[in-house]
Amino acid sequence: MRVFVTGATGFIGSVVVRELIEAGHQVLGLSRSDAGAESLIAAGAQVHRGDVEDLESLRSGAAQADGVIHTAFIHDFAKFVENCEIDRRAIEAMGDVLAGSDRPFVITSGTGAASTPGRPSTEDDAANSHIPRVASEQAADAALAEGAHVSVVRLPQVHDPLKQGLISPLIAVAREKGVSAYVGDGLNRWPAVHLLDAAHLYKLVLEKGTKGTRYNAVGEEGVTAKEIAESLGRGLNLPVVSLSPEEAGEHFGWMGMFVAHDMPASSALTQERLGWRPTGPGLIADLDQVGYL
Length: 293
Known about the structure:
Strands 3-2-1-4-5-6-10 form a seven-stranded parallel β-sheet, with helices on both faces. A three-stranded mixed β-sheet has the order 7-9-11. Strands 8-12 form a two-stranded parallel sheet. By secondary structure, the protein is of the alpha/beta class. It has eleven helices and twelve strands.
């Protein structure tokens, strides 16, 4: 297939591009910069200039492709609500082009979009949480209703030794505050997946995904906040402390909306439906390999 990939030069998208090319697909990668364009060419992809806010560039890229993988997202969490609405409009724009066709359209959401207190969320759970990222799935549902062949990949904390999703900003907070903190007993859980496993899942969903289906890119159902804080404490040589919910907001800043949430997630259905088997290192193993100095 000729695949249009948004976020093609990003942490996840760049590895998706490599995965697709190695599987024999042609890639048209979205890039907003010369440096990004050069990296795509070096990877063996073609370049489509534009960005996630340039809706005409998104429509044009989707129109040229046999399938679309949308990994782009503006990771400025100080403007999280605004950026989720930007993602909604991007999905709507590409969905308009793909409506009424069998061309696969793989969009990205988060496992936190489904709130299932007391148990791990599954692929069959609707996007019902208060987290603004549900906008992405709402847009996917609208595109599905218009006849687009939409599938959703829900991401947890995607990691390797260089980057670890929302945990990367937690490292910055720990450095700034001089302590590695968690909230309460720290038993709230975050799911995780290694970067290479996540990229492989995108390829499988593109090739074999079922229209209207969600897939959870989960390698570990839930790593506790306390385990994460202890790993950061070891790496940064900082004390590990528990904070009250009242203290968390001031300590973590914008991260306060996430740090105390218990949001484990299962990928059992994804593994059953696509034969996907995550094999990469676990989150704590990668955190213990971070070069903190």
